[in-house]
Write a structure and sequence with these properties.
Blueprint: E1 4-9, H1 13-30, E2 35-40, H2 43-53, E3 57-61, E4 63-64, E5 67-68, H3 69-80, E6 83-88, H4 93-101, E7 106-109, H5 114-129, E8 138-141, E9 144-147, E10 152-155, E11 158-160, H6 164-175, E12 181-182, H7 183-191, H8 201-214, E13 224-227, E14 231-234, E15 237-238, E16 241-242, E17 245-248
Parallel strand pairs: 1-2, 1-3, 3-6, 6-7
Antiparallel strand pairs: 4-5, 8-9, 8-17, 9-10, 10-11, 12-14, 13-14, 15-16
Length: 254
């Protein structure tokens, strides 16, 4: 398995050095190059390193001297769909919701335990390797097409910009249309680990973000439906009738 690339963005040198040394030590203990690590102290430098390094995961502080970590997370997600672990001293639940709505895959507060950081990093990178099956199928529901190879979603032949986690969640739901999933099940299947604190609102936040991008009427969604007291299901409906769907091979992709 190739080594994972991790970019650390934090304006505190002590934090940068601590995480970089710790992650580098994982390679020494395993006897192989487990992680390639780069760092940046501000948003401007981070974007330059990001373009050159093309990381698999960004460990990102919210408070940066020349910008907002939430906006930087959103910009990085827009460019490559990279996985982002927010690292911040902010502990308010509203800050966590903001982080997730901007595309973060996990939210970790300072001060932190290095062993827990190791667990979270491994969980996110494992999720990346398990996103697609060995022979991923392109899904089409009416004018909606979901391509897991290109990781692209089109609606009425228009490309829809989704974050990495939003894409994973949409593709997972659409892979089994009509099936109802509990929030806890979605966290287990899509996030690939039990979310610390069991705050299942993270699912609602991401469902809301997806709906804003693919639903014509947010008051009456026609694709992702809420099943009250349970969770969510994907089922394309039109005037009360279920619309047929299809699975297409890579050669038939739009």
């Amino acid at each position: 398995m190739p080594s994972a690339k991790i970019l650390i963005v934090d304006d505190e040198p002590a934090i940068l050095n601590l995480i970089q040394r710790f992650l580098s030590k994982q390679s020494e203990e395993s006897g192989e190059l487990k992680y390639q690590v780069e760092s940046a102290k501000d948003s401007t430098t981070a974007l330059i390193v990001f373009e050159q390094f093309n990381p698999d995961l960004v460990i990102l502080d919210v408070n940066l001297p020349d910008g907002n970590g939430y906006l930087l997370c959103e910009e990085m997600q827009r460019r490559t769909g990279v996985f982002v672990l927010m690292l911040t001293s902010r502990t308010d639940s509203s800050d966590k919701v903001t982080g997730f709505s901007k595309g973060a895959d996990d939210y970790f507060t300072k001060p932190f335990d290095l062993e827990e950081l190791k667990y979270r990093v491994e969980a996110i990178l494992k999720r990346q390797r398990m996103i697609a099956p060995s022979e991923p199928q392109c899904l089409r529901y009416g004018s909606l097409a979901i391509d897991p190879v290109r990781r692209e979603v089109t609606l009425d032949n228009q490309l829809i910009g989704l974050t990495a986690l939003e894409f994973n969640l949409l593709y997972f739901l659409a892979s089994e249309p009509g099936r109802v999933w509990q929030r806890s099940e979605l966290i287990e299947k899509v996030w690939k680990f039990d979310y610390v604190g069991n705050d299942q609102r993270v699912v609602d936040v991401h469902i809301g973000q997806i709906r804003k991008k693919i639903e014509e009427n947010l008051a009456q969604p026609s694709m992702i439906h809420t099943v009250r007291g349970v969770g969510y299901k994907f089922e394309l409906t039109s005037i009360g009738r279920t619309t047929t769907s299809s699975v297409i091979s890579p050669s038939e992709k739009l």
